[in-house]
Each structure stands twice: as structure tokens, then as C-alpha cells.
Amino acid sequence: MGLVRKSHVRSGDYLEGMLNEYVGGKAKFKAHKSPSARLVTALTCLQFAFAVYATFLLYYMSPAIDLRSKPDFTWATRFAQHWKKLMIPSHVVNHYQEASAVVGSEITPFNPVEVCEHEKIDFEQKKSNDAQMIKLKTDLYREVLEFQSKSFGTETLSELMAMKSKWDLKGPTRPKVTVILNHFKRRTLCAQLDSLLNQTLPFHHVWVLSFGSPNELTLKRIVDSYNDTRISFISSSYDFKYYGRFQMALQTEADLVYILDDDMIPGTKMLQILSHVAGTEKYMNSVLGSIGRILPFRQKDYTFPSYRKFRSKEAGLYLPDPAYGITVDKIVQVDFLSSSWFLSAELIKTLFIETPFTFLTGEDLHLSYQLQKYRDAGSFVLPVDPNDKETWGDSEHRLAYVSETTVIFKDIVQVRDDQWWKALSTGYVTQWAAMNPQKIDALFYAHSVKEVKDLAPLLEKFRSTVGKKAYIVVSGGKHCPCEDAATALKWPKSVCRERRFKIFDLGVGALSGISKSEVPVVQAVYSSMRGLIKIHNPSVVITVSDIDPHVKKALKMASETNSNATTLVVLPRATVPKVLWMADLRTTALPNWNRMRISISIITQNRVNSLTRLLKSLSNAFYTGDEIPITFNMDSKVDEATIKMVGSFDWPHGPKTLRRRIIQGGLIRAVSESWYPASDDDYGLLLEDDIEVSPYYYLWIKYALLAYHYDPQVSLPELSSISLYTPRLVEVVKERPKWNATEVFKHIHPNTPYLHQLPCSWGAVFFPKQWREFYVYMNMRFTENAKENPVQIPKSRTNGWQASWKKFLIDMMYLRGYVSLYPNFPKQQSFSTNHMEPGAHISAKDNVVKHDKTDFEVPLLKEDFRTLLPNGKMPPASKLPSVNLFNQPVSLKGMKAAGAKLGQDVLRCNNVTEIVAVDHQTGLPMACAKF
User: Fold this and answer.
1) What is the DSSP string of 261-318?
2) Contacts for 214 with CB less than 8 Å, ≥ 6 apart
3) 618 three-state secondary structure
4) The whole model's pTM is what?
5) How do residues 145-176 score in pLDDT, each as one tens digit?
6) Residue 658 pLDDT > 80
7) Helix 608-619 / helix 640-648 crossing angle, nearest 10 deg
8) What is the per-residue pLDDT across 434-482, written as a single tens digit (0 to 9) for each?
9) For the segment 586-622, what is each residue's pLDDT rounded down to a tens digit?
10) Which of 223, 326, 407, 495 could form a disulfide with 233 if both were Cys (CB 3.0 to 4.6 A apart)?
11) DSSP at 39
């Protein structure tokens, strides 16, 4: 080093010429052989001296040496210079100094002082004198801290350092930290390196990056001047922008990574503080920093402002903010960090799960968004000790105003606004969302434009119903672009650009790209929907039943993660326009959509044609995507045609079960033993084979259960069943007079449903608790001879009914005040009808009662019943009219009083104020209870 030669001269030739110059030929310098030998010896000794010198240098520059105090190498330098004077004559030294002068300027000086540059800061820190803005900002900061303190706790710096950490900064578990410095134009590299070399926790490596920087040569000279093997310089003529440093971070073998912008000069205690906090259980899965931002809050007009909107509290916070006197004295969670990021090397990978919104800017927000979305990791600004600048991650904040960054430019601000809104729209739970939990009724999901169109009627019904909130989520990308979805909904395309909750585009293509695997799609849908559900807390997530099964699974998983009970509703496309009444249900009832199970029990024996008609009507009905078990109960005398029919019948809505008796049981056993509830949410629909149902029968059952039984705000314990049939006669009195509910209740509303003390045997759903109760009651009261039955209801022809399961149910309902819900529509249209075909009762030899078919066979409802109801929906339970067993208007309390007065129940109770109470798990009577 330090020697120059012409480029065409080889190294060997050059060395030979040098030696010849000073050693010479035999003839000319023969008398001076001894001095020449002395020169060779001197060169050899000098080489040895420099080898010793270099060995000491390498030792002291090793990463194992504590660099908190700078080592003194002057003794080695003096030693080498002394030996040089002894071994090399001064004229030889002067000769080589002249020769090296040509390249002297190309040699990197050893002392950083000779190459370091520093930014000139000749101004004071900006301070606002806007009292209104100072109050707005400090008030919002106080609200944020108060919320975070109550929800998960905040700590001061001393409290953080007192927490247990996995990293022992002085022991064997000391972490390895790679520091990445990204430089472009600012002249701050020396200040950063000086700070890092004096850290109380030594770094493992420092990588100085120069991507497309005009100052590349200067930056390299600075790095070389420090002559530290732990500090590396990495450059490229291509500008990898803001993501390049994170791509480099993927290569580190260190435990932790500290990425710094060129305007950040950390205090000498920062690595120690950051490593300790990152090793605590609470903040291990986090990214830590010194500067952060809280994104905008929603304004009064339900829109979100720009994050740089002036004089607006809703624009969010920049923390710390010296301009408004805001310092961070407790750790605070933010929506994203700026200028510095400290995290585990493993978490860095998360940044690249999704394609960034843009590579031009916004890596800070994208990192925090991805970490929360896929790792449940938070972003935190660490507190500082205001009296110790070495605890600051940003010891000279004024550098941020030197060579200002592009984030102040209007076009960049717009891009970043679009980016954070995109994040919020795809499930990023910002501090605003955490502090202001929303509550909506429905969140629709469509994976294709066709699904948007199919869901549109129900979405619009929700959005047009007073007091209801509903939004739609579309997959985006190639599957369902937001603009196409808006067109399908007849909304302006501008809704896709508004910062207002209405339609959310997940941009699934950003993650899946050209992948043929379903995994990226499932991951994108699940992670985004989980966030959106957490933000908006919908009662239900609604989609079509034939959606891609992988997407359906992702939606189900996302719904189940919500602790506030969100239910996934999958509707057959044909049913969507038939269940617009969903929007009329209370928000508290909607989550129970999937709780009930309707079990169909068909009683049949030898009427195959009747059975065929019933099965056809069941198959043609509208369903809501629920699982519906169907059971065929056949007595021992079942015929061959019926067995073949039930065996070949295909039921796509749930399991099919066949049951056949060995010994003939008769109708009373065939019906009462056909079903027993498996749980409190299992309901039995009992159908004899001569019944036919309306296409809307199932929707009526579902709507009624949700409105009157599964709404926590409704108390109607007397309801024990739901009838599909509307009677035309008062069948419990001898005269059997005509009955028309439409005429009776026209003063309320001609089509209001009503409560009736009479159970229906021609198509009804029975409730599990009361059915268990009925089993016990019938077991205690069953007699072959009806006259021996102790219950005799005054003036009721049911007292003489023989072999009737319904008679015992009527007795129990009368004694305990139970009722059934009945439909009431024009011309007595119903959800079931009885075709009055010969069987155990109709046309039986021992039945003296003649039956006129027109008195029992009612028309089936073929149109959507919702529009016929009062105000287009089920009336409140308190508005339902009620009639007793004899079709006389009586209150629910009045019915209980009549049962108590009769005093013929299985327990003797006060005839005025008490009725029998039962254990609904077993059906066993327990005690008398006041009503």
C-alpha cells in the first residue's frame, strides 16, 4: 500500500526493478554488498513490525471487545515508527513518499474526523402558539392514554425497565442486534455511528445502506474511516426506495433488528432499552419505536379527514409532537411508527405477505398494518426520561426539518390517505376503532359480482330500515372489483373512493396474485374479515350458500373469533328476496339465527299418494341454509309402496332417518313418540302424511321463533308451539261454530298473528321444554278410558276424546296457561292444510262426528307473507291478541287463572294464585308457582 506503478508493469517486474535499484549489479556495487543486505534485512523486520501492529488492531476491533471506551493505539504507532527509523534509511523513505504522493488522495484516511460531515442546524425547534390546536391535540392525547391505560395498561420508562425480560443484557442471553441505517442526502451518518459505537448495549452489526444516493462515495469513505469490521457498507445504483432496507433486514442472523431513518440520532441507551422491552412477555410480539402516528378519527358527518388536515382534532396525532408540547412519558400504542423500527427479525417477514399499496411511500403504515393483521402485533412508541437525553430515540428532532421528506407533498399525502383508508377498510383496527367500537346489524360478503346482485335486495332492505346499519364487503381484485359491485348495486362508483363506511374492497388479488392455490384467498378473506368484524361487531355476516367452500370456511372462522357473538348466515340465492323480514328483527335476535334446529317428523303407514304429495311440498319450499333432519315414523303395518318411497326419497337439507315399529302402536303412540328433543334448541315439526305445506312454511317458523322466542328483549314463556294451520271451526265445543280470525281481529289488524290456547295437530312446531313436560304429564295421566281421566274441562268436547294424544296436550296447556302462535291471512290461507283423507280418525268406524272437508281444508299461502303482516312485519309480542281454548278473548294471565281455578293438575296448588312449575330439563313437576 502507498506504492504506485504504471498499469502495464506486472507486480513481479516492479518488485524486481525496485530491488535492483537499491541493490544493484555485481560489478558496479560489489564494494557495498553489506549495506544492500542490511536493506533486505530492514524490509523484513519492518514487515514483521507491521504484522504485529495489524494483529493488535484486529484484536481491538473485534466485536468481542467492549467499545464503550475508545482504545488507545498510539503506543503501537510509536513502536512501528521507531523500528522504521532504525531499519530504513531516511533517503529510502523519502523516495517512496514521493512515489506515493500521486495516489495519496485515493487512500481513505484512518481518522473519521477528516471525512465526517454534519448537518448545520441554525434554528430553534418549531413551537405552535395556536392555543386552540394545542388544546385539541393535548385533549385527544389524554383521551388516548386514558383509554389505553384502562384497556391494557401503560407503563413509564422505569416501569418498563423493571419488567422481566428474556434478554439478559449482561449475561449469556444478551441479544444480537443488527442496526440498519438508510442514507440518501442527509449528512448524519457520523453522528449515528458515533452514537451506536457508544451504546450501553453493543450492536452485533451495522449495515449502512446507500440505494441510488448521490452521496455514495462520501458515505463509503465515512464507513471505511471507522475501520470496524462490524460496520458494513451496502450500495446500489438502483434506488430500492423505502422497502429496500426491510428487504435487507430479511438477511440478518441477529435476534433483533433496529432500522433507522437518516434523521434519527438515538441516545446511547436506546439499544439497551429497546432490547429489554422487546424481551418482555407483554411487548415481545410488537414493533417498537420513538415516533408514531395515530390515524384520523371519524367526523360528525361520518367521514374521515386527511391525516394532515389542519386545525382538526379528528386528523389524529403525531407522537411525540414538540410543536404542541406533547411528550411521551408512558408507552403508547399507535397506528404506525415513523423513522425508526425495532422488532424481532422474525416479524420482518410479515411486511411482505401482501403486496404493498404502493412502493413509493407508506412502508411505515404497511408494516404496522400487516403485523396486526397477520401476527396480532401492536406498534408502540416508547416513553423517555425527559432529564436523560440518552434515553431518547430521537435526540435531535430538528433534523426532521432539514431536507424535508416527501410526506408533506400534496400528491404523496393523497397516496398515504388512500393507503390508510384502504387498511381501515380491510380490517385494520386503528386506535379510533379500538376506542369507538361500532355495532351494526349485518355485514354482507360477496366474492363475485353475481353474488352482489343476488344479495342486493336484502342489503337494500337493511339499509332502508330505520335504525338498521349494514355494509357490504367485496373480494376486490379480479374476483369482484369495487366499481363493478357499486354498479350492480346501482350506487355511484365514487363510493369506492369516499372515506365513509359503506362498501369495503378487500383487494384479495393483492395477496393471491396468480396463485392457483386456495390458501392465499382463504388467508386474505379470513384476516380481513376478522378485522372488519372486530371493528364493526355485526350481529350477522350474510353471504350466499353456494359461495366457494374455502371462502365460506374463512368467513366462518372469522365470525367465530368475535367475542361479541357474530353469526354467519348462508342463504340460498332463491331465498334471499324471501327473507327481507330479517331487517325487521331486533339486533339482539339476529345472532341467534343458527341456534334453532327444526326436526321434521313424518307419521305415515299406508297412504303413499298422500305421502308423495307431502314430500313434494317439503322439497319445493324455501329454506335458509339450516340443517333440517327428517325422520319417517312407520307403524308395523306399513305397506311396501310406502317403504320404497321413503327409502328412495332424497333430502338435501339434512340427515334422513327411518323408524319402523315391530308391534302396531296406533296413532297416539305414533305421534307422541315420533320425536323427543335433543336439546333446548331442538324443535319438532310433526306432520301426518295427509298434510301438505306451503312453500313459505319454514320461513314462517324461522321468523316466528326469532321474533318471539330468540329475542332476549321478548318474554313470552307461555308460548309452547307454532301452528302452520289456521282453523275454520271452534272444534272444542259441541256445536263447532265457524271461526274466522280475520274478521275477529280486524279492529287490530285483519292479518295479525294471534295466540290460541289450542294446540294444532295439522302441522305445528312444538317447543322442546314444553314437549318434555308433556311427556311426563301424559305418562302420569294416560288412561285407556277417557272418562277415567281426572281432568274435565268445563264445556269442552275434548273430555270424551278417545285415543287422542292431542287431548292430553290440551289438558296440560289449559291447566298451565300455555298458548300456540297461529297465522292469520286472507281467506284463511295457511302454511299447511289437511286433506282430510281416511285414517285413524277421519272416516273411522267408531267416529260418529261427520267432517265436512271444506271446514278443514284451507288454501296454502303461495306468496310472500311479509307484505300481509301489520306494517309488513311481525307485531310486538305485547300486541299479539290472545284467545282461550274456546276462542274467547282472554289475557295470558286470565288463562292461567282459569287453569288454577280448575285445580286438576298433578300437584295440588292454590286455586287462585298458583299453577304447577316444572323442571324443563326433565319435564318433572317441581312445585307450585305464583303467576
Assistant:
1) -TT----TTHHHHHHHHHTSTTTTTEEEESEEEEPPPP-TTS----TT-TT-GGG-EE
2) 185
3) helix
4) 0.83
5) 999 999 999 999 999 999 999 998 777 899 99
6) yes
7) 20
8) 999 999 999 999 999 999 999 999 999 999 999 999 999 999 988 899 9
9) 999 999 999 999 999 999 999 999 999 999 999 999 9
10) 223
11) H
What residues form DSSP beta bridges with 338?
Answer: 291
Residue 823 and residue 830: Cα distance in Å, rounded? 7
What single string gives the DSSP state of each residue in 779-816?
HHH--SSGGG-S---TT-GGGG--S-HHHHHHHHHHHH
CA distance to 305, 361, 562, 777, 893, per residue, from 413 (Å):
12, 10, 34, 74, 67
Helix (H) or strand (E) holding 672: helix 667-672
Q: What is the pLDDT of residues 56-82, one digit of tens each?
A: 555 555 444 343 344 454 555 555 555
Cα separation values, 456 from 163, 451, 576, 755, 865, Å: 53, 8, 9, 35, 20
Q: Identify the pLDDT of residue 565.
A: 85
Rama region for 735: left / alpha / beta (φ>0; ψ in -120 to 50; rest): alpha
Q: In what order do the strands lie in the sheet with 540-544?
A: 503-505, 470-474, 442-446, 540-544, 567-571
Which of these, 750, 768, 638, 621, lies nearest to 697 by C-alpha position?
621
Please identify which residue in the block is written with the cell numbers 334448541: 681
Q: Show the cell assigned to 783.
A: 288412561
Among residues 709, 745, 713, 710, which one has the least CA distance to residue 819? 709
Q: Residue 470: CB partners within 8 Å, gap ≥ 6? A: 440, 441, 442, 443, 444, 459, 462, 463, 583
Q: Share the mean pLDDT of the chain.
A: 87
- Identity of the amino acid at 560: E
CA angle 317, 323, 327 (to 5 degrees): 65
CA gap 825, 867 in Å, rounded: 11
- Which three three-digit cell numbers place residue 747? 279492529
The burial class, CB within 10 Å (0-12 / 13-18 / 19+), for 790 is: exposed
DSSP H or E stretch at residue 259: strand 256-260
The three-class DSSP label of residue 32 is helix
Taking only the tens place, the pLDDT of each residue in 228-286 is: 999 999 999 999 988 999 999 999 999 999 999 999 999 999 999 999 999 999 999 99
Residues of the chain by 3-state class (helix, strand, coil), percent to 5? 40, 15, 45
CA distance 750 to 740: 10
Strands 286-289 and 378-381: parallel
Peptide bond into 320 cis (omega under 30): yes
Measure CA of the first residue to CA of the last residue in the chain; give whole Å. Answer: 107
Element (H, E) at 234: strand 231-236
- Residues 365 and 420: beta-carbon distance below 8 Å: yes
Beta strands at 567-571 and 764-766: parallel, antiparallel or unpaired:
unpaired
DSSP code of residue 694: -
State the Cα angle at 115 between 110 and 117, rounded to 5°: 145
Query: Crossing angle for the helix pair 189-197 and 216-226, nearest 10 degrees?
Result: 20
Cell of 535: 371493528
The CA–CA distances, whole Å, from 795 to 34, 305, 792, 886 equal 149, 74, 9, 9
Contact criterion met (CB below 8 Å) for 145 and 152? no
Dig out the grid coordinates for 336 from the structure: 404506525
**3-state SS track over 657-721:** EEEECCCCCCHHHHHHCCCCCCCCCEEEEEEECCEEECCCHHHHHHHHHHHHCCCCCCCCCCEEE
Which has the higher per-residue pLDDT, 721 or 52? 721
Cα–Cα distance for residue pair 779/672, rounded to 1 Å:
11
Roughly what angle, to the nearest 10 degrees, separates helices 410-425 and 363-375? 10
Per the DSSP assignment, residues forming a β-bridge with 542 are: 444, 569
C-alpha cell read off for 139 = 385533549
Q: What is the pLDDT of residue 818?
A: 98
396 within 8 A of 264, measured Cβ to Cβ: no
Q: What is the rounded CA–CA span in Å between residue 210 and residue 682? A: 69
* Per-residue pLDDT at 849: 56
Q: Are strands 819-822 and 691-693 parallel, antiparallel or unpaired?
A: unpaired
Q: How far apart are CA 360 and CA 364, in angstroms?
A: 12
